[in-house]
Structures are given as structure tokens and as C-alpha cells.
Amino acid sequence: MTTSPLFYQQLGELLAQEPVVVATIVQVVGSAPRELGAKMAVYGDGEILGTIGGGAGEAKVIEQALIVLKKRKEEEEEVKEEEKKENEDLLAENRFKNQPRNQPRNQPRNQLIEIDLTGAAHQETQGVCGGKVQVWLELWSGERAIALIKKILEAFEAGQSGMLVTPLMRDYPSYLVNRQRPNRRALLTANPGFEHQDLEHHGSEHHGSEHFTEILQLPPVLLIVGGGHIAVALAQSAHFAGFGIAVQDDRPNFVTPERFPQAGLLSCSISETLTHFAAHSQLYVALVTRGYPQDIEALTTLLQHPIDYQYVGAIGSQKRIRMVRQAMQRRGISLERLANFHAPIGLDIGALTPEEIAISICAELIKVRRGGTGRSLYQRMHTSHVSFKVHAGEQRYAAHVPR
Questions:
Q1: How many Cα neighbours within 13 Å face the side chain of 244?
Q2: How far apart are CA 228 and CA 224, in angstroms?
Q3: 191 and 225 together in one domain
Q4: Among 369, 361, 323, 366, CA closest to 342
Q5: What is the pLDDT of residue 33?
């Protein structure tokens, strides 16, 4: 799980105003509502940014986070009272004391919380997902946290891949590491006391180790070729699903900020558009053009470009798609390059309207991104009940679907 740049941007805005407790799922055993690495920020009187799954389990985390924030506030008030008394003593007795200033007396109360979702009657959370999750609470506050957010956002802006390392110990804050060049000396300099940690093995899950690592990389981008009604609906759906949006159409009046407020890039040229994603490893392309001549020109440019696309698909009837494939072969596009061409695009959900078609396409994008099957969850669950029959020395099996 990679947390989106938007989350860190909003987290930075919160940190400029007040301390925040960041909750991160650091271990998942069995089934859970959210994935490993999911984050939620708790602030104020229980307001949240993001989610780690909702329900009673999330409520338990919010409750504990509020305790951390309350204790932090009490410590800060104690420090202020001590400073006030110290200043009064200095004025009265003209002497200095070696008490630390402007810092809470105690370290932030980072801690690990386990949420049981097995549905056992004695469990406080009464979850029914069937698994268990561990959530790490870390207090983010002050200039150091704001500086970390700034570094994270700068890495995203520069297209750099980094690692956010969260030490699972009470006294150490999270820090950022360059993924390509993790420098041990720099880590030890920035985080004295880490000599006893195994920093050479950055895992995605802690399994009892002393740190949790999140890979920071840019979110996937969906390039929508064509700016018609389906494109408008698809941009909305894909943006909601976490994709960055770029739109290309050779008609300037179709690629405007008014039509595509979610788009980070609007262009009239595919070649120009692709130059922005030459080094992007998570590029998805959906062709929803006004006709197969536009499909042919666009697809030729796309497939002749050396980008390793995660997904390329096109809308259209079987006849239209067949004509496009034949044209690609005549232009010398290899069958290997066409092998992963998704056409007609989308999952078969009976979609008719532009909005429904957009959801169908977006569902397939998510399936490819997450490695899903596209099957109904109901069917998947009920066809998993398999019984074996032995007849005349043969072993046979039959799937039983409850009526």
C-alpha cells in the first residue's frame, strides 16, 4: 500500500495547526477491511483524515489516539507552568536552572494496538472480518514532523521513490530514506541509537521486527485518449479510485479544465503527453475516442513508444476492435505488443450510460492494478465449497452452490 501524496499534503496542513496522531496498519493476519500500510490521522476532538477500516476497531484506535493527544497537551501545559515559575524565580533570585525549555517532559507515547476481527464474543471490537490487525500509533508534531512532510512531498514532486521507515519503538519518529541509495551512515546520523537495528532488511511488514517500511511512489496515472462524455465520467471515477488523470484530445475545446477539473495534464498531442511519463512505471491508458481512425493513430503512437504500460485498452464494438487490430498488424506492431491490449475495454456489468460504462472501465483498471479476478465475490465464496466423490475407482469433484 502506498499512501497518496494528497494524504501527506493534507497531513502537512493539519500539522501546521496542531499535533496529529498517525495510525498505520503494520500487520494483517487473515481477512481485514483495510490493507497493510493503510493510514489514518487523528486530530482535534476525534476528527480523522483517511481510514483504517471503520467500525469498532477504528473507533478503538481513535479513542486511544485521543488519549495520546490529551496527554501531550497536558505535558505542554506543565512545561509552560514550569517555565513561568522558572522565569519568576530568575527575576526574584537572579539564578539559572538547567531545566529543558519548550519541550514536553515525556517522549511521545507511540504504541502498538491489536484489533481482533474474528468475531469472538468476548472481543471488544466485535469484528467479523475474520482476521487480526496491528496498528501503530505515532504522534507527529512540531517542526520535525513538518520538515518530514516537506521532504515526502518534494520526493513525490520530483518523481523519486523513497521509503518511509517507522521505528516500532516509543522514542523514535518516522524518517525518509532514498530507496535507490539508502545510506546507513546518514540514517545513524539522523537517528542516533539505531546501531542495534537491522537497517539492511526493509520489509513491508514488521513481523515482530523493529521497524515498518512503506514504499513511497507516485500513484498510477490514467491517460484518457478522447474527451467525450465517457471520458468525463471516467476521469471522475478513476480520480475517485486514486488514479492521477491526464486527458488527450485533438480538439482543444474538449480538453479544458472546466470539463476535466481532476486532470493534472491536458493535451492535444499524444506524443507530447507521453514525454511527461517516459519514466513513470504506473501508466494506464484508456482509448475512448470518437472513432476507429482516431484509435488507430493513437494506438500506433502508444505502442511504438518504449513505455512499459500497465494497461492499454480501447472502447468499441467487436467489429471496430477487429479493424483496429488488423490495422496495427499492417503497421508492423508485433503480436507480442498487442497481447495485453484490452479491447473491448471494461468488465461486463451490463453498462449502458456513459457513467455506467466509466464504472465498468474503472473496475477493470482496479482489477489489473490489484490483481483481482473480476468475479462476483458472492460467486467466488459460494463456488469454493467443493466436495469430492469417488466412483468406480475414479476421484471426481463437484462444486455445490447453495440455492
A1: 19
A2: 10
A3: no
A4: 361
A5: 84
